[in-house]
Structures are given as structure tokens and as C-alpha cells.
Amino acid sequence: MNILFVCHGNICRSPMAEAVFRKLCEDRGVSDRFVISSSGVSSEEAGNDIYPPAKSELRRHGIPFARRGAKRITDREFADYDLIIALDRSNLAALKRRFGDSTKFRMLLDRDVDDPWYTDDFHSAYDDILRGCTELLDSLLQ
After folding, report:
1. Residue 8 placed within a domain
2. What is the pLDDT of residue 61?
3. Domain extent at residue 123
4. Rounded-to-integer distance, Cα 56 and Cα 79, Å
5. Would 142 be classed as within a structural domain?
6. What is the pLDDT of residues 44-61, one digit of tens each?
7. CA separation for the pair 32, 41 (Å, rounded)
8. Given 7, 12, 25, 133, the catalytic residue
9. Is 13 a known active-site residue?
10. What is the reported pLDDT for 17?
11. Among residues 12, 22, 25, 115, which one is catalytic?
12. pLDDT band at 9 (very low <50, low <70, confident <90, very high)
């Protein structure tokens, strides 16, 4: 199954979710069952690496990640991914505006994961992402 996490600029929440979900899959021995990536709905951060405070939060929890360049979701990704997970309602609305309504789209939680770029609360964002990724993986493995 191909899973794509999507936030606004692809430098905070979606790469955090990608790394957390990948680690959860590794810990449960199911990495071979998933292709995991992330993108943004905007191209304003294109090419930029994960935002340093997001990296610090991932390190604090022992979540590995690699240097990467932010990118905007492509038509190819929309076609290739089975699940496209939005981190907040504005991201979901942007996806629907661009690609139309799709059964591929869902929210990570039943509410927004607040954007730590604005709140500077990377700890709460991490906690929400961990909860959402754990619940997502549990549901996919049932």
C-alpha cells in the first residue's frame, strides 16, 4: 500500500508523519507492506529540508529521517498513492480543489494537527502525529 502524508509546505508535519509512520512500520516488522512518502499542497518551500525544530523533535524521540527536499504533490503521486493523508482541513480542501473529491483522501486525525510553523509547538504536533500514525497503522493491519 502506498501512503502519502500531506501538509502545507512539506517541511514540518508531513515529513514528521512520514518518518514516524516509517518507524512504526519498522518496529512492527511490516515495512515491506508500505511505500511511505510526503508532499505539500504548496510549492513555496520546494527544495527545502525538514525545518530544524521538526528535526530536533524527531531526534528527541529516536525517529530516524534523511535529508530531503520539500515538494508539492504531483499528479503522478495522486495517481500512484492509495491513501493521501491530510494533516489539517485546509490541506484537505486544497487537495480536493486540485484533484476533486477522492476516496483516497482522509485526515490523519478527526481534527487538525496544528501547524508548528505557526504555533512553535513541535511537541504537541509530534504527539498528534504519533497518535494518528499509530491509529492509522492499527486500522490498516486489521
Report:
1. yes
2. 98
3. 2-137
4. 33
5. no
6. 999 999 999 999 999 999
7. 27
8. 7
9. yes
10. 98
11. 115
12. very high
